[in-house]
Structure formats: C-alpha cells, structure tokens
Amino acid sequence: MTSNLRHFFNIMIIHACFNFVDLTIYRSNRDVNNNNDKPERENIFSFDLPSCLLGVIMSMLMLKDKIRASTVCKKWLEAAKSVRVVHKHQWFVSIPTFGNSINLFDPLERKKYTLNLPEKGVTDVAYSKDGWLLMRRSSFVEFFFFNPYSRELISLPDNELPYKAIAFSSAPTSETCTLVTLNRISEYIVAISTCYPGATEWITKKFHCYLAFGPNVHSNLVCVNDRFYCFTSRGVLFEFDPASRTLSHQAWDDVRFPEIHNNEWSYLPKELYLMEQKGELILMYTYGAEKPVVYKLVSSKWEEMSSTLDGLTIFASMYSSETRMDVLGMKNSVYFPKYGLRNNMQCVSYSYNDARYYPGLPERRLLCPVDSLWIDPPPFLK
Description:
four-stranded antiparallel β-sheet; five-stranded mixed β-sheet
C-alpha cells in the first residue's frame, strides 16, 4: 500500500470514528432529555473497533481530539490512555565528508530524504543531540554546531588536541550547553577539555586515574544530569563534573560482553554503547550477531533489563545513541544504521519480542558507519 493511499484510509477511519462520536453525543443528549437518566454509551455502537486499530487512531489525533474521543466509552478511554505518551522515533542521518548534502532516512516509513546545505562544506560529523549536529571541518581543529533544519550555524574556538570521545549536554541555543572531549594520554592519565558556545578557548585538564582507562573498547560520551560519563570494556565508569572540573570513576565486575556462540563471528568487533533514559544510564554490549545485552544503572548497581526492554527503543550509533519509550511499531528493539547495496541507507534491528535480527543476521562490520548517527526528525515532517 502506498503512503498516500495509507494516509487516505487513516483519514477516512478517523472521520468515521468522529461521526460515531457525534452520534453518541446526540443520542446521549436525547436520552438525557427524555429520561433524565445517565446514558449508557457503551451499548450505542452496533460494532466494536479492534483495540489495536483504536490505538493507531488515537495516536494520530491531536490532543483536543484525543480528549473528545476518550469520552465516547470506556474502551475508547483505555485506548486513549495507552497512547497518551508516544515519543517520536529517531531518524538515521548520513553525512558524507565531501559535498553539500546530507541524507535522512526514516526507519519506520523506510523513506529517504536529501537536504542540500551549502553551509556544510568539507566536514565530518562528531555528535548529535536535540536536533543539532556537532561538525568538524577538514582542518580537524575547527568545530561548529549546525542545525540542518533551520540551517543555523554556531561557531566554536579551534581545538587542536586529539580526542577519543566527544559530546555536548544540550542544544547550543540553551544557556546550559557544555561541550566535553576526552582523550587517553596513557593507561592511567586522561585529558578532558571543555568549551561552551560563546567561549574564546577550550580549557584542558589532565587527570591521574587509579583505575586504568584501557586502550581497547570504550563507549561514547553521554551527558546525564549535568555530568558526562564514559564506560570502558574493563568495567570502569568515568564521571566528569564540568562545574567543579572533577573526575571520578568506579569499577564493576558483573557487566561484560555476551558470550560468542559461533566461532565464525569471533573476528567481529565488540562494541559498547552508553545512553540516557529519563535521567538513568543505559549500557549496551554487542558482539557479533549475538543478542545485545542491555543494563540499567540503578542505585550504583548495573541491572540487566528484562527480555522485553520494558517498552524501550534504542537507536545506537558509534558517536551517540538515543533511547525512546513507547514508540509505536518500534518498541522493545535496538536499531543500527547501515548501508546496503550501492550505499542505500538501511537499518538493522534486533527485536526482543521475536528474539531475532531484522532483516537477518547483521554483518557487524557494516553497522554504525562512521559518517552516520541518529537525529530528531524534521519538525516540518512531524
């Protein structure tokens, strides 16, 4: 079914439902006027819409229409409650180093869009958050924030120091935006640099750590409650407070990569992803085509999440990962960006409900390309 035809049927269904709403209100008022009794709305309809269809309809309604529809009957009220909080899913954005265009891919609708952005130039992407991209020009020292939808550009001072991970706390238009880079100098020394929009220079401080920052696998940086975190394959969580410029770290022995069950996958890379959900840290391990293992930090203890992820959706990428709750049609899954044949944009997902990858076992080397990450969908297409 084409998108236009599907949209047509959706509109027809919604209009039909509101005809029933009007009929209900009319009959209810008539019954009240004639009998002065409370109307029995549940018995007015000659048929019941399936709950799954009601949920889809409710998710498409504006707030005022959803409130109106929820007054029809108890079943419609429950359907309205079930979709009361529905979060928008993320889009896969691909940003080639050369050229003035970026590509967007909607993983739910499987549609690709291209934006021509003369401001882009020769750049690499470093991070994404709140609809903003952190970009780096070909000189590798010139950073800037860029919003691909509003085409707003915010410059930053040059940073000539190398880094292993980079992140920013919030949209650069906010007063609380802080930018942090982390670089491993040696096994027990890390350098952390900070900056913010409007600053004239980066401030760098070296820290001596009694727990080693290993040379191998580590996660991306993520900001939670005004602090920045990074997790290493040795089970060490580094926490940096930019306000006090202090670094702390803690180690755990009970979080580790899943065991490999197929020797053919043993050469494939191990990956760590760190992300935030409602102020809590979420950690995900992937190894080959094994099921991703997901933990949540609760009261200083990493707890493995249930086999269904409790309605969570994870959008994983090399630089930054995002989470959303109760995303219609995407719950209890992990999504990875991927290039298919002829560099076509695709996604690979792991469904915890079905305990399998879609569309099939992934080629891990092709997942999470370096020039791709996730971004909020365009406001003009929401």
